[in-house]
Design goal:
The complex is a heterodimer.
Chain A (H helix, E strand, L loop, with lengths): L4 H6 L8 H8 L3 E5 L4 E3 L7 E7 L2 E6 L5 E7 L4 E2 L1 H6 L6 E4 L3 E7 H10 L4 H40 L7 E2 H8 L3 H13 L3 E4 L2 E4 L2 H10 L2
Antiparallel strand pairs in A: 1-8, 2-7, 3-6, 3-8, 4-5, 4-7, 10-11
Helix pairs in contact in A: 5-6, 5-7, 5-8, 6-7
Chain B lengths: L5 E2 L9 H5 L5 E4 L2 E4 L10 H5 L5 E2 L1 E6 L2
Antiparallel strand pairs in B: 1-4, 2-3
The chains are: A alpha+beta, B alpha+beta.
Bound molecules: iron/sulfur cluster (2 copies).
Chain lengths: 222, 67
């Protein structure tokens, strides 16, 4: 079954195309229904098709060698996935799985290429879409590395608080050196930990208020 | 005695950066060295430590587990 005209008209990919043009390309799409929990594409597969979510939610994720899953993006109705592999002709960098019952509109890589050749005006849409995906990923990278640093700082706090005997004191400068990061990042991390209720800063006393949560933080990011 | 940030007088050049940055007037320069005045207004924000170009200021935290 072809994609609905309304759906394609609303998609940022095809913004600027006329209704007759959209009618023609709608025949290139086919519909697919995926059950919750089913995989749609696999990391490392060739990117043969571009997927548009018509309803439901799809998670794009990577799995580390230790089997830890990192979700990179949750794709909601109106948005697409597998773009990178489709446009650069490489392998899919992520796997995808339906988080609910999902309806998809799928178009093959070669048909999508054909649309771009026939309607070069939508290239600008593709640039917009890919740019916003890059922006999202950069924010994610920043967030992940920040959380890793927070994890290291959490471990340092626990180690210092747990040790027997007189407790050595630490400046934020020293915490930064121990965690291999900049001083400002320590300040931000302590604020975040305090905001999450894991620690409490009482002037020159740094009180670990929730040891359990802090330990979990260490395990989650090491 | 109220604990206050510590100055390493050997490292301190008396540049005054810390005194200018401290929002509560806890630091003054006396005879070319940073001198800390005991005050509860100092909330241990560590700004002085952050701005000191010589690394001469130390706002040390005692790290304890609650309970
Ligand atoms: S900023 Fe550092 S070097 Fe300058 S006066 Fe203060 S303690 Fe001394
Ligand atoms: S910790 Fe903050 S308030 Fe205290 S002396 Fe330093 S700059 Fe001033």
């Amino acid at each position: 079954m072809a994609a609905s005209i309304e759906f394609l008209q609303a998609s940022p990919y095809f913004a600027g195309m006329t209704e007759p043009e959209i009618e023609v390309i709608s025949g290139l799409f086919f519909q697919k229904t995926i059950e919750k929990g089913e995989k749609i594409t696999w990391q490392g597969d060739p990117g043969e098709a571009l997927y548009f979510v018509a309803s439901g939610a799809v998670k794009c994720f990577k799995t580390s060698p230790e089997g830890k899953e990192q979700i990179l993006q949750i794709v909601l109705p109106g948005n697409s996935f597998n773009d990178v592999a489709v446009f650069d002709g490489g392998l899919s960098p992520t796997s995808t799985e339906a988080m609910s019952l999902v309806n998809l509109y799928v178009i093959s890589r070669s048909d999508m290429g054909g649309i771009l050749t026939d309607h070069p005006k939508i290239m600008i849409n593709v640039i917009d879409i890919l740019s916003s995906k890059i922006r999202h990923l950069l924010e994610l990278v920043e967030d992940l590395s920040f959380r890793q640093v927070i994890g290291r700082i959490a471990r340092i706090l626990l180690e210092y608080a747990d040790g027997a005997g007189p407790k050595p004191k630490l400046t934020q400068h020293e915490m930064a050196a121990l965690a291999g990061t900049a001083r400002e990042v320590v300040g931000r991390s302590l604020k975040t930990l305090q905001g999450d209720g894991m620690i409490r800063m009482e002037r020159n006393r740094l009180v670990i208020a929730d040891k359990e949560a802090l330990s979990q933080m260490v395990n989650a990011h090491s | 005695m109220l604990e206050m940030p510590r100055v390493d007088l050997e490292k301190c050049t008396g540049c005054g950066t810390c005194a200018a940055a401290c929002h509560c007037g806890a630091i003054v320069i006396v005879e070319g060295k940073a001198t800390i005045i005991e005050t509860l207004k100092c909330g241990w924000c560590s700004v002085c430590e952050a701005v000191c170009p010589e690394g001469a200021l130390y706002c040390e935290f005692e790290i304890v587990i609650e309970g």
